[in-house]
Write a structure and sequence with these properties.
This protein is mainly alpha-helical. It contains four helices and no strands. The chain folds into two domains: about 60 residues, no CATH class; about 35 residues. Helices cover about 80% and strands about 0% of the residues. The chain starts with 10 loop residues before the first helix and ends with a helix.
Length: about 110
């Protein structure tokens, strides 16, 4: 049986450590940049001017920052942390099935 995860506070001295751990986790995750690159490649044509690409990349960066700061504030609340920990296994299973289905779709795709 898996031990229960507990909601805990990083405390004042642990805030810097928690921030650095989260930053390193995100920066070492290749999925986020790949999703943004895929989004830009679908939404931007080959003839897009450099100024447009610069603005699009900046908007992606601002959006990503806002989303992750929002996640940080949301999941730092004890109520949301407890709710997520209670639903963690079904959420992880659902996401795993969806990623698996997407992988099968990519692997079996045949252009017409």
């Amino acid at each position: 049986m898996e031990p229960k995860a507990a909601v805990r506070s990083g405390g004042e001295s642990g805030l810097r450590r928690c921030f650095l751990q989260g930053l390193l986790l995100h920066l070492s995750n290749p999925k986020a940049p790949l999703v943004w690159l895929a989004t830009l490649s679908v939404g931007v044509g080959e003839t897009a001017p450099p100024a447009f690409l610069t603005v699009a990349i900046l908007l992606c960066a601002v959006t990503a920052t806002a989303v992750f700061v929002g996640y940080a504030f949301l999941f730092s609340t004890p109520a949301v942390s407890r709710a997520y920990l209670a639903a963690r296994r079904p959420v992880d299973a659902t996401i795993g099935v969806l990623f698996g289905a997407a992988a099968v779709k990519v692997l079996t795709y045949r252009p017409s």
